[in-house]
Amino acid sequence: MAAKEERKEEVPHEGKPAKGRLLPMVAAVVAIVVLQAGLAVGVVRWLRVSDHAPAKAAVEHGAEGEEEGDGEEEKPSGRKLGCAKTPVSKTVSVSGSQGKRYLKATFCLEYDQKKYQEFEKIAQEQAMRIEAASQKILSSAPMEQVMSPAGQDSISTRLKDEFNALLKHDKVKVNAVLITEWLVQ
User: Please, are residues 59 and 46 in contact by the beta-carbon 8 Å criterion?
Assistant: First the structure.
């Protein structure tokens, strides 16, 4: 009889997981689902699928010819955005660091491929001016601006404005400066 009691004590929960094991498994499943959802949202934003869906629907329903505003801004459906084939890459000493901190930035010039078909050629011709302007702006940025995401956006906007001023006489326009590498050491 003592042998039967010992057996029962050895296997108290046949086929059922212990409560102590169930909680970590549920937490792991929930964490995986949350990570997958976050990844899906990130991919959708990165691919800009949500931005293109209304534009495609408008084109299918014949709203393509409707224009609003002063005509300066174009509808997203009329654009085919692309980046210049040759990215701009600069390594500069960060302002105020006495040469102890460096910034390596690589970015591409985004433009409307339909509207500015000669952009690549013009960007190649103006490459030295573009690099000089980027050198001036990046090297004058203080460490606080270089380290913060809002500061990086501000630098990107300043670069875009400067490049557009340089390319104005060539009648092309940079839509955005997309930062692809940002390394501070």
Answer: no
Indicate the pLDDT class of residue 159, thresholds 50, 70 and 90.
very high
Which letter does DSSP use for residue 79 in this model? -
The token pair at 132 is 């000089």
Q: Could you write out the DSSP letters of every residue in 2-47?
A: HHHHHHHHH-SSTTS--HHHHHHHHHHHHHHHHHHHHHHHHHHHHH
- Distance from C-alpha of 117 to C-alpha of 114, rounded to nearest angstrom: 6
Tokens matching residue 61? 């329903």
Q: What are phi and psi of 118, to 5 degrees?
A: -95, 10
Note whether 131 and 163 are within 8 A (CB): no
**β-bridge partners, 182:** 105
φ/ψ (deg, to 5) at 175: -75, -45
Residues ≥6 apart with Cβ < 8 Å to 131: 88, 90
Bridge partners, residue 123, by sequence: none
Question: Could you give phi then psi for residue 68, rounded to 5 degrees?
Answer: -125, 160
Mean of pLDDT values over 35-39? 81
Spatial CB neighbours of 138, under 8 Å, sequence gap ≥ 6: 90, 92, 103, 105, 155
Tokens representing 167? 């390319």
Chain segment 1-23, per-residue pLDDT in tens: 555 555 555 555 555 556 677 88
